[in-house]
Amino acid sequence: MSETDGDILLLSLGVAGLLMALTFFGEVLRARQPEGATDPAVETYMMRIHSWWAMVILLALALLIGFPAVLALFAFASFAALREFLTYANKRQADHLSLALAFFAVLPLQYVFVGIRHEGLFGTFIPVYAFLLLPVVSALRGDPEAFLVRVAETQWGLMTAVYCASHVPALMILDIPGYGQRGPLLIVFFVMVVQVGDLVEYAAGRRIGRRTIAPGLSPKTWEGVAAGLASAALLGGGLAWISPFGLFGAMAMAAAAFAAGTAGNLVFTAIKRDRGVKDWSHLIPGQGGFMEQLDSVIFAAPVFFHLTGAIWAV
Amino acid sequence: MGLLAPLRRLAARTVGHAIVFAAQVITAVRAEWRGIEPVRRQRVYFANHVSNADMPMIWSCLPPALRRETRPVAAADYWLETPLRAFVGPEVFRCVLVDRRPEARTEDPLAAILAALDEGSSLILFPEGNRNMTDAPLLPFRAGLFNIGRARPDVDLVPTWIANLNEIMPKGEVIPLPLICTVTFGAPLHVREGEDKDAFLARAADALVALAPEPRRSAAA
């Protein structure tokens, strides 16, 4: 077993220990209910913890198996997120072929370009070539009704669910001097600081939140975000040993990833409110859909990727 | 034949699992039990019909125990047209086949449907009779639903709304889009004492349309 695999296992066990404590806490809450009764809040909490177990196990397995498994996992997550986004997007029958191409050609190709480590194509394929080609396919069917709206919404779906999300596995193709084959640990670092920051932001916002960031849109508060930012930075510092950033660099990178992620969360709240949906889907029990799970990752991944690339990679 | 029959049954079950898997992975079909619980009661699920994929979708999102006891009512003229359809319709979905063309009928369609109910099966029924290609939410219902409800008053008539299928697979397209399909089950209806056909069918159509999701807000509108 390589040193990287050992570190992944160690961190997975750490997270598993945390989840075990949270599961135990939920079971204690369950046991305190009167015989035969259930508290919906406790059941929702337990459903969320179970979903977390599934996500942690899947990500840990993919990272241990290697780059192709990580690609496959994120390609599937992109597929599920794009499906949720386009279900609520404006579209007409004239878009049928271009939407089919988005799902069955653009999405797999984007992950192939990451897989063959072709940074030029991976960076331009969707925002240049897919964005030029797909409107042509729609236009050829000759239906001008709400054309720009249809094209723009499809492109935003591809940009977020596929292009941005594919920057997470792309962290493994960065060439960082002195970091060697430890790319999977960069993903662990990134995912942990973003997700833990999100959780702390949510919990702290509910307890000590006073001033809302975007009144009328989101219950997010400045206090919650400050707590999330601090906890992400602290966790980043604690995980500095698996990163190439050094102690202060790791804290700054974690804070930057959290800030971008929480901004993404806010933007997707606005989209959901616009479309009148509460959850993107019900595919992840207790959490909503894949989009709910990925919205912060989607905004944070390109920022994290390019900062790492600009400062630490060659 | 003695050896072939079990093999065909095995093939039918395999194809059935493949259809359920495809529906759940591609369109993530989701059942919303709004007016009833997914329990084993004898029911006629009556649904809107916009696409040939409607019936497989409802069938796929039923829990397995209910699915085994539920038979779609389908058009014989469609399902017996080719050998492949004649395998999938009667053997995979175990359709109750009725002929929509009065001149070709050898059997009263209602008799075949009631016989299936009397064997204990639940049914999936499309009371519009044909696929709805119009902008109206529903076509006028045919009399079948009323006749079933009057002949077997104990059976629950469950309105079942399928959302999004016309975007997943519009008529004339070959590739289905993997968008999320939702099947909503409403509160069961029964034909009331002395209720006439038109009044009942209007009530059933209203109950079905009431399950349709709100039209989405759209910048284009």
From TrEMBL, chain A:
Domain of life of the organism encoding this protein: Bacteria
Pfam families: CTP_transf_1
Gene Ontology terms, MF aspect: nucleotidyltransferase activity
Presence of the UniProt keyword Nucleotidyltransferase in the record: yes
One cellular-component annotation, GO: plasma membrane
Gene Ontology BP, a term: peptidoglycan-based cell wall biogenesis
Record-linked PANTHER family: PHOSPHATIDATE CYTIDYLYLTRANSFERASE
Name under which the protein is recorded: Phosphatidate cytidylyltransferase
Organism listed in the record: Oceanicola granulosus (strain ATCC BAA-861 / DSM 15982 / KCTC 12143 / HTCC2516)
Automatic annotation (TrEMBL), chain B:
PANTHER family: 1-ACYL-SN-GLYCEROL-3-PHOSPHATE ACYLTRANSFERASE
Pathway: Lipid metabolism
Record carries keyword Protein transport: no
Cited SUPFAM superfamilies: Glycerol-3-phosphate (1)-acyltransferase (SSF69593)
Domain Phospholipid/glycerol acyltransferase: 43-165
Example of a GO biological process term: phosphatidic acid biosynthetic process
Coiled-coil intervals, chain numbering: none
Single annotated GO MF: 1-acylglycerol-3-phosphate O-acyltransferase activity
Keyword Acyltransferase part of the UniProt annotation: yes
Pfam family, one: Acyltransferase
Keywords noted in UniProt: Acyltransferase, Transferase
Superkingdom to which the source organism belongs: Bacteria
Record-given protein name: Phospholipid/glycerol acyltransferase
InterPro entries associated with the record: Plipid/glycerol_acylTrfase
